[in-house]
Amino acid sequence: MTxxxxxxxxxxxxxxxLSAAAGLGLVPPRAHAxxxxxxxxxxxxxxxxxxxxxxxxxxxxxNLVSIGNAPSAVLNVLVASGGQGTYEIINIVGGMQxxxxxxxxxxxxxxxxxxxxxxxxxxxxFLGNGKPGFQFIGYDNDIYGVPTVLxxxxxxxxxxxxxxxxxxAALFDPKWKGYVALEDNYTTAGQKTAxxxxxxxxxxxxxxxxxxxEEFKAVTDFLIDQKxxxxxxVIWNSFEQAVNLITSKEVYVIDCWEPMxxxxxxxxxxxxYADPKEGYLLWAMAAYLVKNPNRxxxxxxxxxxxxxxxxxxxxxxxxxxxxxxxxxxxAETYAKDNPSEFPAEQAKRVAExxxxxxxxxxxxxxxxxxxxxxxxxYESEWSRFKAA
Amino acid sequence: xxTAVEPWARRVLLCLPLIFVAIFLVVPVGxxxxxxxxxxxxxxxxxxxxxxxxxSLIGGxxxxxxxxxxxxxxxxxxxSLIIAYVIAYFLARKVTxxxxxxxxxxxxxxxxxxxxxxxxxxxxxxxxxxxxNTALMAAGIIDAPLDWLLYSDFAVLLGLxxxxxxxxxxxxxxSIGAIDRQYLEASALLGASPLTTFRTITLPLSLPGVxxxxxxxxxxxxxxxxxxxxxxxVGYELIGNTITSSMDVLNYPLAAALSSVVILLMLLLxxxxxxxxxxxxxxxxxxxxxx
Lengths: 388, 291
Hints:
The complex is a heterodimer.
Chain A: H1 8-23, E1 35-41, H2 52-58, E2 60-66, H3 71-80, E3 89-93, H4 97-102, E4 106-107, H5 121-126, E5 138-139, E6 142-143, E7 145-157, H6 159-162, E8 180-183, H7 189-199, H8 213-228, E9 232-236, H9 239-247, E10 253-256, H10 258-266, E11 272-273, E12 280-290, H11 297-310, H12 313-323, H13 329-337, H14 344-363, E13 365-367, H15 375-387
Parallel strand pairs in A: 1-2, 1-3, 8-9, 8-10, 12-13
Antiparallel strand pairs in A: 3-12, 4-12, 5-6, 7-10, 7-11, 7-12
Helix pairs in contact in A: 7-8, 8-15, 9-10, 12-13, 13-14
Chain B: H1 7-36, E1 39-41, E2 44-46, H2 52-59, H3 62-94, H4 97-106, H5 109-112, H6 115-126, H7 131-138, H8 153-177, H9 181-189, H10 194-205, H11 207-223, H12 226-231, H13 239-248, H14 252-276, H15 279-283
Antiparallel strand pairs in B: 1-2
């Protein structure tokens, strides 16, 4: 799932801009850094380019490089592009442990080296071993990802056109025929559909988190039937495209992410992110420690310091404020207690977002599964849906 | 004054493109075909001669995607050919060389615009609340927005034609422009109508250019992935998209098999072009030194 549409071109542009800025003397040189942590991220984990607190504490620079979030993009960065020998940390939507661990691309996390780990009560509350959320950070009872962001997704609608909506049934309601958009992603749109079918008693699905072939085929058949009836206007592929679909009123009901609603609202739109009775599609981002053969013990220590920094209050508050996602339990308090860094309005926003996401998690739903057991069957069936 | 090229120098010159093609085309294509037969083991491949990827291609929805991709590509190429031929004909026959040069330069402008920017701009123009629908409704021509303007077959064809038609004008212009005007004058003197002259002389003699232009268009349309995503709405999974999608689950042998089938189709078309037409008639004087 691509949470933020940042591609290599954007990264290159950023690199060129920074090079030019450095050349013009706009970026102060960091002559005394002990080293650099190479940090690959999908765009969500960047605190506005400000790593000064970490750099002051650790003596290490952070070199953030934007990458795509699709599994192939992540693996291409680590394998084909030689990223395994370059990066220390890779921060993506979690749940990728199977391909990453099975191919020896990431290391087990020694949580004892992270002082903030014990303070992050969200780990035990939502992502603990034995809970569905564990698959976002763990694999075979071991921890491989440090949770950096948590969120619950549903869908958005234009109340002026539809009135209040509180069920995924709206995505398939003939009243909005031709005015519905889905995300082009079987682990989001596919799972939300499965959640709806299960809760509405329209299909026998034991676990929307990890469906059997028969169950996912039932989901695909349902979507194909809806598609042939003309229910969907478009399947969207990028953040900007989804925002445009909302702001242009091309569709009235859209399966999407909450930050898209924030953007649409900032443009004066009356858009509501639904609170569906079936629950949410829950997910988390995970920062993985890359199994980098070139890394020294000192660099590993610095990488652990960065992971710990990302579990801290300042980083959490900054990311919540910038991206609209819940991060860690210290974020809200830090923002409230440090008005010089987070003015009252920002602290209020951090508190509201945190409370909103906590409410979603308490309501439940289904945990997104980035790498379900039958992932290839999912992909093949999704192609069948799109080709139908 | 043209000086003779030494045979050894000619061979060296020929070696450069051969080396380039070998390194940047033959080797990658060869690897792609090889990977399509390998057996998967996580991110690695086991040496094997497995037809599993081809079986998956034939057995699942991929074959329908391939069929549909071919159909859409052929439709877009045929429509582009008609439009490009008319433009090339007028540029080669009906306007002065100076005017033709200016128009040809104008047709290079689409190459300078990012294809994503171009496709996204269509969504602004053709959406339900877009410029076209708004103007038509304001003029009283329609009462409700035309849904088929965007996220439809029409939108995909428009995107493909605007992307690849300009490529096709150039070979057609070269081909039509190379036809000896004396043939046309003789036809007219013998009493043939302009339509008969076009049908019996211009069109047959321009066929190498038509085939070349068709090949350029078909290759581009068949591999296109941005247009169906941005303009296709719900129903456009073309072969480029399904190759990307199979790579998302690390099924590289399947992606390689799909790519190999497309490459094979293109090679067959090129072989047909090579066997049916004398390429020198298209490439003109470039190869005359061989005679």
